[in-house]
């Protein structure tokens, strides 16, 4: 697409992964960008995540190289008892990259600030009314910002702007960040999981290092019914550690640095998708536009892809750009939302039937060609073209998509 639209004044709500990526890309394209963050000092929330090859390709386009911080992931494995029921390998030339959110935040923050954005902090956004074809950003107890030609809502699942009505999921998890033990049989290039039917899932994800700490780190997680997350602050931690290590003895050395329930953060999940992720002079990206279980590891990558697609679409006049953005992401988002809804109950639910189906039917089938190739494409984010109408590289993550 050739540039046909004038440069815009853009307000972006939320300094998470999607918001920072959109801020960097829009500012690099020459737009005047104001990033609005409710915290006095922008900071990351959460523990580890996996950047899939498609997400890495967007970071390459931004010029935000996270590889020095993260841990390359070449394989995902899960066991139920002694039976291996999940074994997915990445293409050798395009591994995933597991990383702490603080490290990813650091590289995106540097890219956005280097591109010359304006930052406004310290007040939550509660509305973005349309006036004379432009948007204001109204903040709690602060002066309005704008008017802007376009407001991008990247404020996550707690957005006050999105009209999406998401469905709460029955299971969530607690997450923590711990040092990688000196002695463990677990590989530093694999995501490892253990399942007790679908009622519990324990996981260990190597996530490289933090920006200010060279010590290798791991993210540990444990799934829980949503109702149990409310009681987590009162959890008897020694009893919990005993339960986890009974299921998975190899996880014991990863739990030694956890001393209270506050060392793990509860995470609640929901599922929903906006049919139209835009309104006049307003666009929604990331969790404001679509939410799902993290089972497929696509959340951060979806936000990065949204930011990239929207920036590309803004080469058109604004009234054409927003429908084009929705079109570019529609089928990729729908496919992954459908897959997430289908697979999550096999790993996180009270079902007694689905775990058996997972272990005795799907697991053997997954080892067969071409299903194993399809699973690699599924976790890599390339099952469908991530952005419709673009020349996306087959080995996304090795080099940037063509801009």
UniProtKB/TrEMBL annotation:
UniProt keyword terms in alphabetical order: Monooxygenase, Oxidoreductase
Presence of the UniProt keyword Oxidoreductase in the record: yes
Pfam families the record matches: FAD_binding_3
InterPro entries named in the record: FAD-bd, FAD-dep_Monooxygenase_BioMet, FAD/NAD-bd_sf
Domain FAD-binding: 10-329
Keyword Oxidoreductase: yes
Source taxon at top rank: Bacteria
Entry protein name: FAD-dependent oxidoreductase
């Amino acid at each position: 697409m050739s540039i046909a639209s004038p440069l815009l004044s853009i307000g972006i709500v939320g300094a998470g992964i999607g918001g920072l990526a959109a801020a960097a890309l829009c500012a690099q394209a020459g737009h005047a960008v104001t990033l609005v963050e409710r915290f006095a000092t922008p900071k990351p929330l959460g523990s580890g995540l996996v950047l899939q090859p498609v997400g890495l390709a967007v970071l390459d386009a931004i010029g935000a190289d996270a590889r020095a911080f993260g841990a390359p992931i070449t394989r995902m494995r899960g066991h139920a008892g002694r039976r291996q029921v999940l074994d997915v390998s990445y293409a050798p030339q395009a591994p995933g990259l597991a990383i702490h959110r603080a490290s990813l935040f650091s590289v995106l923050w540097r890219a956005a600030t280097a591109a010359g954005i304006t930052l406004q902090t310290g007040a939550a956004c509660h509305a973005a009314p349309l006036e004379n074809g432009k948007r204001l950003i109204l903040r709690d107890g602060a002066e309005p910002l704008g008017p802007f030609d376009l407001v991008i809502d990247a404020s996550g699942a707690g957005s006050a702007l999105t009209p999406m009505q998401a469905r709460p999921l029955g299971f969530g998890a607690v997450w923590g960040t711990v040092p990688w033990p000196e002695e463990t049989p677990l590989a530093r290039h694999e995501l490892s999981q253990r399942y007790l039917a679908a009622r519990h899932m324990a996981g260990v994800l190597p996530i490289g290092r933090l920006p200010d700490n060279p010590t290798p780190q791991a993210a540990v997680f444990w799934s829980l019914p949503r109702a149990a997350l409310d009681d987590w602050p009162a959890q008897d931690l020694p009893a919990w550690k005993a339960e986890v290590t009974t299921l998975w003895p190899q996880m014991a050395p990863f739990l030694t640095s956890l001393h209270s329930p506050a060392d793990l953060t509860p995470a609640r999940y929901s599922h929903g998708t906006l049919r139209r992720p835009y309104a006049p002079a307003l666009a929604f990206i990331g969790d404001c536009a679509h939410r799902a279980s993290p089972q497929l590891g696509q959340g951060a990558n979806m936000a990065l892809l949204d930011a990239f697609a929207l920036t590309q679409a803004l080469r058109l006049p604004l009234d054409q750009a927003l429908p084009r953005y929705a079109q570019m992401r529609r089928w990729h988002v729908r496919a992954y939302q459908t897959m997430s809804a289908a697979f999550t109950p096999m790993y996180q639910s009270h079902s007694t039937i689905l775990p058996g189906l997972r272990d005795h039917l799907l697991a053997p089938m997954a080892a067969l060609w071409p299903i194993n190739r399809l699973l690699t494409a599924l976790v890599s984010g390339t099952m469908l073209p991530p952005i419709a109408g673009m020349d996306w590289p087959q080995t996304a993550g090795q080099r940037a998509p063509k801009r």
